[in-house]
Amino acid sequence: MWFGRKRNKRASEKASAKASGKAGSDLAPLTRAIMELSGDPGLDSRVARQERQARSGDAEALIRLGARLLDEGRDAEAEQQFRRAAELGEPLAMHNLSVVLGKAGRAAEAASWQQRAAELDCAPAMVGAGFRAVDENRLADAERWFRGAAEQGEDQAAYILGVLLSEAGRTAEAERWLRAAADKRNAEAMYSLAYLVQEAGREPEAELWYRRAADEGHPQAMNNLGTVLRYSDRVAEAQEWFRRSAEAGEPMGMLNLGELLEAGSPERAAEWYRQAARRGAAKAQRHLTRMAEQGPGRPA
């Protein structure tokens, strides 16, 4: 906007064109420097807009601002924003507030806000309420909370619900929920589903799910897959999965790898047995004792 006498449009265009070369050369380095420092020339305006919306009482803006403050390590300020949104009745803010309070060691207040959010069907809060119920041995309440979150698509809730149902002997329903979580690439659910179907005698399907969980980096699934392969005469592939399990820190993988290596390389086998024994594998310690008793050439 121009103030004072209105300029002739053509004169303005000529003046702008004349100045563009010099102005462009002067301002371009400055613009580049600002962009390098900020990373995003629109960042400040977005943050300012978010803060204005938060000050106006916009619950979603309060939550976004709280999340940004939390990412920046400004927990006390984040708490203020989440609390304002929570007091407006926003369930996600209640849940976020409970997380901040929990980090600060204010467990009772955290539980109160988490409960309020869960009762308003906030799925993450329902998961938290479910874990709290498990800790307090209120398994019926735990099932109710996990089921509610699972029905909203929370894969972690579906996995835990499946485990609870399996432990209660309700295997058909357990399989349904474990499968729902496994289909969302939840590795723990894949592993538990594999174990469930293996116990039911469905070995090919168990191998499939152990393999999928192993491909997701699950060390116990790697070991169990190796065991399936070992006892179906696919020893070379079994050894590779035992190795991967062992290298990921799984004691049973270390034990099983040692057993496959012992005949051809007792020294390497003993080293894996030692590592497994240090992690509590009693059978590995028995192997070491036996090898020591056998004398030279079979080190312990």
UniProtKB/TrEMBL annotation:
InterPro entries: Sel1-like (IPR006597), Sel1_AlgK (IPR050767), TPR-like_helical_dom_sf (IPR011990). It comes from the Bacteria. Residues 1-27 are annotated as: Disordered. This is Sel1 repeat family protein. It holds the Pfam family TPR_10. Coiled coil: none annotated.
